[in-house]
Write a structure and sequence with these properties.
single chain, 14 helices, 43% helix, 310 residues
Length: 310
């Protein structure tokens, strides 16, 4: 099976160069790399050096520019999917760094099963991130792989269709059969599509052996805004998120994170965990009820103002 790697970019830094370098060393090389580069005004997105440096590493390295006002988490990726012509498409973000040379081959092997529609990799906490973020990564991305189907909804709940386009491979034929990513979505384009696939009888795989370095250190305000957008996406797609609630999973993660901080001698970090978790919940709570909020407040709460201008 041939693979296209699809990467949305916006003012990329050297991490993109490292990502492309490691992709060029994979045991299973992508036949095409597509960069969907978001630009503002006349800027070139600082991609020239990266493209020139790696132009000879892949059979095809293409850059498509998207105006920032037109960027959409689902719509822009869907446009990239329409440019791809391989059986499999690996969606990544510009700050996800493959741990080893087997990322693509590890994900691709699952598609020997015709019912597997998507497979996503394990995200590892980068060096220097907070203990809370390190635990969150291990909670959401455990050490054991799993094939998930609608039979797992009772046991796994919302984790059944958890999937992240930070590093997720999609079967292109099934992708279009299911309608692809939402053309207009504020967040969660990956889980929305994975949920539809699960409901239709397909399988989504979590591959713990396909690993990328990817983590964040967000402020409380940033956490609130991201979770506001998360709540909005769930409110706008009840056909998917009514299958399972995410509140219970969030509470479970906070409790286990606090217990882990206590055991590991990081008790001083627990107040920070509580503060961050409170901001996440407030953002999520308000996002789920965004239709009752005035526009001015929505624009203060969202992390994606351009979504509301469309």
């Amino acid at each position: 099976m041939e693979v296209t790697v699809l990467i949305p970019t916006f003012r990329p830094d050297r991490k993109l160069n490292e990502l492309l370098r490691r992709l060029s060393k994979q045991t299973m090389l992508p036949s095409r790399v597509l960069l969907m580069n978001t630009v503002e005004g006349d800027e070139d997105g600082q991609l020239t050096d990266s493209v020139d440096e790696f132009r000879d590493c892949f059979p095809v390295l293409s850059v498509f520019h998207v105006d920032r006002k037109e960027f959409d988490h689902g719509g822009t990726r869907h446009l990239g999917m329409s440019f791809a012509d391989t059986e499999l498409v690996l969606c990544m973000t510009q700050d996800a760094i493959p741990k080893d040379r087997h990322l693509i081959s590890s994900l691709a092997k699952w598609f020997d099963d015709p019912l597997v529609a998507a497979a996503y990799g394990r995200q590892l906490a980068a060096k220097g991130c907070s203990p809370e973020e390190r635990f969150t990564r291990s909670f959401n991305y455990p050490e054991t792989s799993r094939v998930k189907s609608k039979e797992d909804l009772e046991e796994l709940g919302i984790k059944t269709f958890f999937c992240s386009d930070v590093c997720a491979m999609w079967r292109r034929e099934t992708y279009f059969e299911m309608g692809g990513f939402e053309r207009r979505t504020i967040f969660n384009e990956d889980m929305i599509l994975a949920g539809k696939m699960i409901r239709a009888g397909y399988r989504v795989v979590y591959d713990a052996d396909a690993q990328v370095w990817h983590s964040h250190s967000y402020s409380c305000v940033k956490q609130l805004k991201r979770n506001f957008d998360l709540g909005v996406s769930q409110a706008e797609h009840p056909e998917v998120f009514s299958m399972a609630s995410s509140t219970g999973e969030g509470i479970k993660m906070v409790k286990q994170n606090a217990a882990w901080l206590l055991r590991s001698g990081n008790v001083i970090r627990i107040p920070k965990l509580i503060l961050d978790s409170g901001c996440k919940y407030i953002g999520y709570f308000l996002g789920k009820r965004y239709r009752k909020l005035p526009r001015k407040l929505i624009l203060k709460l969202t992390d994606n103002r351009t979504y509301w201008d469309k």
